[in-house]
Amino acid sequence: MEKKINKIYIAGALTHVGSKPREIYGKIGKICREFSREVFNPHVDGMCPVKNPEVTPDEVWKNEEGHVASSDIIIAYVGAPSLGTGGEIEIARMNNRKIILWWFEGEKVSRFVLGNPGVKFKIEVKNEEDLYKQINVALENL
């Protein structure tokens, strides 16, 4: 398959979550590499607060904002409250990027983020297998 997407950014809560979401973000990154020339995964490539606590807030902002603004698509986990993820989603909208939101059934998601006009896909999933399948479908259709 020819990679038609230049860059995908994977967003999701990092500060107040355990290791499971980070594992899922990594698996999403592997799927995205099939579709995109570049994938930026902040928990791996960025300034994750767990792995890089010494990085200043200013450095985080400059780094993450630049990566979101230069991405074609942002895939964001919205099932856990995260001010950073909300900011990344808004940066994506302001830069006319395509946004894919996902969460697990039963998780409460902000109506504000669901109403964001930049959102192209809203994916509520039953389990991880369902998530990976639906991410594939969304990327195939963008």
CATH architecture: 3-Layer(aba) Sandwich
CATH fold node name: Rossmann fold
Biggest sheet strand order reads 2-1-3-4-5
Q: Bin the strand percentage.
A: 15-25%
Tell me the number of helical segments per DSSP (H or I, 4 or more residues long). Answer: 6
Summarize the structure in words:
By secondary structure, the protein is α/β, with parallel strands linked by helices. The protein has one domain: 3-Layer(aba) Sandwich (Rossmann fold). It has 6 helices and 5 strands. The protein has a 5-stranded parallel sheet, with helices on both faces. Strand 3, helix 4 and strand 4 form a beta-alpha-beta unit. Helix 1 packs parallel to helix 6 and helix 3 packs across helix 4. The chain is globular and about 35 Å long. The model has no long low-confidence stretch (mean pLDDT 89).
Can you give me a brief rundown of this structure?
This protein has 142 residues and is an alpha/beta fold. It contains six helices and five strands.
Keywords, please?
142 residues; alpha/beta; Rossmann fold; 5-stranded parallel beta sheet; 42% helix
